[in-house]
Amino acid sequence: MAFQQGLSGLAASSKALDVIGNNVANASTVGFKAANAHFADVYANALNGGGAMQVGIGTSLAAVVQQFTQGNITTTNNPLDISINGNGFFRMSQNGAITYTRNGQFHLDNSNFIVNDQNYKLTGYLADASGNIAATTPQEIQISATDLAPVATGASTGTGFKGVQAVVNLDSRSLVPSTAWAPTVSPGPAGLATVNATSYTYSTPAQIYDSLGNAHTMTYYFLQTATPGQWQVYANVDGTQFSNVNLGAGAGNPITLNFDTNGKLTTAMPITGVSVNLAGITADLTAAGVNKPNGATTPLVFGLDFTGTTQFGSTSGTNTVTSDGYSSGRLVGLSVGSDGIVQGRYSNGQARNLAQVVMANFQNPNGLTSLGNNQWAQTSASGQPAIGTPNTGSMGVLQSNSIEESNVDLTGELVAMITQQRNYQANAQTIKTQDSIMNTLVNLR
User: Fold this and answer.
1) Tens digits of residue pLDDT in 294-339
2) CA-to-CA distance for 213 and 155, rounded, in angstroms?
3) Is the peptide bond before 299 cis (omega within 30 degrees of 0)?
């Protein structure tokens, strides 16, 4: 009789409604992946084979399959909200147990680990003290709260120029200064170098840093000489005596810049071995009544580069002045790049790589087992995870300040709900019809 088929149909429709209801309930769950119920028909086994006379005995639930399609990306105000655009999962750790998720709603816990709402820790590759990241065994990402150590001018790492770079234009129409260069001719506090404004043509300051991160102002004074196309450059630091500075021509002595008839600099650059006597500067400032204790490494040695400096017939001016080195800095913010690199921003304007988020991908994501809380776990059916960094291989890219919404299509789910309701009613009707037939048979006389 057809009761068995009808009952299996009711059970199937009920399971389908369970799946639909779960999808609808998670329509606003970040990183949720909608599921579909798959069903299979059921036939009774027969020793002599079924042939064309077999009649099915109903249906059964074959599988509940999640759809790992991309969800919409929505922007947020949290820099640690991270969405995945493409394939892959975040790799999470809780007491050494590894799980995987598409929900990128992260924040810092009280130990500065990047965690989700269930306190699972995000994993990745950690950076060394210089900000270099090497692919090793993924570890739980903990953000260092240590201040960024200062770097003295001339002591920076990397391939950039180590020292002060300045590009200026010196007015070719300038006259030789009316007063001879004598930085102490005007009265002033002991230890400080008072410079008569009529003894030089142009000046520009540059910021330099000692080994303790103390900022110092190094001022360059440009003097037009009687020789056409020739200028002399003096320098002092923090307004102290010029004898504390050696531009490579001896303490207190100037360097010479020469220009051709087209206003181009012909003096070889850069100048190496520029040194600043920090002990002398401290002594001069103390003599002037300025409390300026130091203790930094002395002398401070770096390079000086005037490449690009010109002598044109226009007003003297500074185009750019840059120097390496910086003061210490306190962590003030974080950012995450599309490549997963977590970068710290510091109060001194510097940025440093702190870690890189890793991702995992599986040959069969549907083989993962759902743990709840937006977490999946590896199984034999899913296969081993392929670990890599974002935007490499089969991995998607990351987007900071955003989340991946649930991929549930509410319109489609509501239509499917109506369909399953009709299926349920139809299967109930087959049972009702079969009951009516049975009742007729029982009442036969």
Assistant:
1) 889 999 999 999 999 999 999 999 999 999 999 999 999 999 999 9
2) 12
3) yes
Q: Which CATH class is domain 163-323?
A: mainly beta
Angstrom distance (rounded) from CA 62 to CA 258 = 86
> Could you tell me the residue ranges of all domains in the chain?
3-69+407-442, 73-145+330-404, 163-323
Question: Residue 264 above 60 pLDDT?
Answer: yes
- On the 0-12 / 13-18 / 19+ scale of CB atoms within 10 A, 263 is middle
Question: How confident is the model over 227-234, as a mean pLDDT?
Answer: 96
- Nearest CA-CA partner of 125 in 353, 406, 432: 353
> Residue 123, Cα to own-chain centre: how many angstroms?
14
Which residues neighbour 10 within 8 Å (Cβ) at sequence distance 6 or greater?
424, 427, 428, 431
Query: Between 410-442 and 3-25, two packed helices, what is the crossing angle to 10 degrees?
Result: 160
Q: How far apart are the first and last CA of the chain?
A: 21
**The two structure tokens encoding residue 92:** 């999470």
